User: Fold these one by one.
Assistant:
Number 1:
Amino acid sequence: MPSAEHDEGLGNERAKDATMADSWLHTAFAYAPWLIFALIVLVAYLATRSHEKVAAPTVQTYSCAACGRRGRREQMVQVAHEGAVSWYCARCAD
């Protein structure tokens, strides 16, 4: 059977292990927010780096010289006068 002195010695070792465990625990919780932030940034980067940037095609529109209504070139009527070009909508061109 182990002696009482031997048990006390093990108690001190357990106390040292508990202190070391507490120290490690404090360190882990100190760095955890930084590690979580780094993981979030890494995941966001990996999720968005492969996506192609798709731009909406820009359609040139013209404004009616009479009423200001906007429309595509196919919907407007071109009227040339004295070297200048004016665009009119179907309603105002009549």
Number 2:
Amino acid sequence: MVNDYADGKIQDALKHAGGSQTQARKTLLEWALKDQMLLISLTQQHLGSIVAHAISKASAGNDGRIERAPRKKKQAPAMAKPVTVNIPPESFGKDLLKALSGRDSVRFGMESATGRPIVTARKKASQQHIDTLKKLSVVQSDTQPKSH
């Protein structure tokens, strides 16, 4: 019954405001200040939150701010000491490029647990693989147009 009363007053305010929601809000606020039943029916669903907010604001002090315990700052993990490398600056770039592009350089997904590359000899192609490649090359040469 209480919500029906509020719904009726909301519809009346919209009619009174000519469909303008902003004007209807202002009218409904004026009516709610004069009509306690309208005020209660509008705020009943939110009354628990309104009361909780008022209590927390009052218990926080005059300025309305709630003091919280200060947070402990996390310390950064200890950094390892930098290792000094005795490489002349002139050759550092070249040495780095050689290390990255050399035969034993690490390829993505091929690292072992130690971080070093897994060095394996290439396997010899199977005879079946060789025969298949030969057949493909014959078929490929037969389908290409011959130039005169």
